[in-house]
Specification:
The protein has about 400 residues and is mainly alpha-helical. Helix content is about 70%, strand content about 0%. A two-stranded antiparallel sheet has the order 1-2. Helix 1 packs antiparallel against helix 2 and helix 3 runs antiparallel to helix 4 (about 90-105). The longest helix is centred in the last third of the chain and has 42 residues, at about 295-335.
Length: about 400
């Protein structure tokens, strides 16, 4: 509780000051063709979260807390440098690898492994931390999504820690959840500040260390990876798709699954809510592994794989649904036998486009106006089309 309150308190108190300083220093994320926002917005608002997580870990204490502090500090500093002036891909990866190796070395220092096994564990954990930090950063593209998933992940790890009576896992998870919850009002719905790389790197490192710690402490992999599975699947799927298409993997883009949802007309809030709901479902399915019953665990794993498959396939399903709606809207006005022959015309441009269906009242109203017949007096004389005309 003290760790959670300290992290959340730092964010609540420091965030307004941070936003003011970022604006004065012109540390702004300006819109471009890959952006999901249209207004220049301060970036770097995740710095108070990183500071709060470090404070919380120092209060908890212990060797795992040292690894946690090293990871959050190292990746947070790298992210803040990226927010301020940018780093080349090679330099950024080199610094991330160094931070991941340092944290991993501390994390496995007490494990009873032979030298070769310890070296392999350090390398594996360093790759895991570096990889997930970048995945978390890639997925921070719409308002509230990163903070919402950090909130879910922190809460899940806190529950796992309480279940295993693991002090650090419980307190560290609670601190992550509290920091993310305190940041959400500044970023959800209408973003007044972005996490920036300092925030996404810091939160990503914190969740990666908590996940590695959970697996080392004997928690089943499904339960430990449940809060992180959607981010890992989306990033891995998008990366392999771009590599197979011959695109440069390190080049910025907007082809993640959640970004394709935005391009289909979904709002930031809707994307955040739906992806969070999928992550919660994956967490519940992962928790089935805690029962110790092989059949239940295997069944939950199969369902979880199916959920991720549907998520990764969702842009294609959305396009097919939109295409069917477009065909239905296009064909109806031209083939309606109740319309006079002169009014049997193709639908207006807004109806044929279909791109803004469900995108807001203004779009719906405009589409409805285009779908109306041009001569309302003639339409009113059509039997059963106007209740008043039918009554007469």
């Amino acid at each position: 509780m003290i760790a959670a309150l300290s992290c959340g308190g730092v964010v609540v108190l420091a965030e307004p000051v941070t936003i003011s300083l970022l604006r004065r220093a012109a540390v702004l994320d300006r819109p471009n063709q890959r952006s999901s926002h249209s207004v220049a917005t301060p970036r770097g608002g995740g710095a108070p979260i990183a500071a709060g997580l470090v404070l919380a870990a120092l209060l908890i204490g212990g060797r795992v807390a040292v690894a946690f502090v090293i990871a959050v500090t190292a990746f947070g500093v790298i992210g803040f440098a990226e927010d301020l002036s940018g780093l080349s891909v090679r330099r950024r990866l080199a610094l991330q690898a160094a931070g991941g190796l340092a944290a991993a070395a501390v994390l496995v220092s007490r494990l009873s492994l032979p030298t070769a096994g310890r070296v392999a564990a350090v390398v594996a954990i360093a790759l895991w931390v570096t990889g997930f930090v970048n995945a978390f950063n890639f997925m921070d593209g719409v308002n509230g999504i990163a903070a919402a998933h950090a909130l879910i992940g922190g809460a899940v790890f806190a529950c796992l820690g309480a279940w295993r009576h693991d002090v650090f896992l419980a307190a560290g998870g609670a601190a992550v959840a509290a920091g993310a919850a305190a940041f959400l009002p500044w970023n959800a719905v209408r973003a007044r500040v972005f996490l920036g790389d300092v925030g996404s790197y810091g939160l990503g490192a914190a969740l990666a260390v908590l996940g590695a710690c959970a697996v080392i402490r004997g928690i089943p992999a499904e339960a430990a990876l449940g809060p992180l599975a959607l981010y890992l699947a989306d990033t891995a799927w998008t990366l392999q798709r771009r590599i197979r298409a011959g695109q440069k993997w390190s080049q910025a883009h907007r082809t993640h699954i959640y970004q394709q949802w935005c391009d289909a007309g979904w709002s930031h809030l809707r994307v955040t809510v739906v992806t969070s709901a999928v992550t919660l479902l994956l967490c519940l399915l992962g928790a089935a592994s805690l029962t110790g019953v092989t059949a239940i665990r295997a069944g939950a794993d199969i369902v979880a794989i199916g959920v991720l498959a549907v998520y990764l396939r969702s842009p294609v399903l959305l396009r097919r649904t939109t295409a069917r709606l477009e065909r239905a809207l296009y064909a109806h006005p031209a083939g309606d036998p109740l319309l006079p022959a002169g009014d049997r015309r193709p639908a207006g441009a807004a109806v044929r486009a279909g791109g803004h269906l469900g995108g807001g009242r203004g779009h719906r109203d405009r589409a409805h106006r285009d779908a109306e017949p041009p001569d309302r007096r003639r339409a009113a004389r059509v039997p059963r089309r106007d209740p008043a005309a039918g009554a007469a």
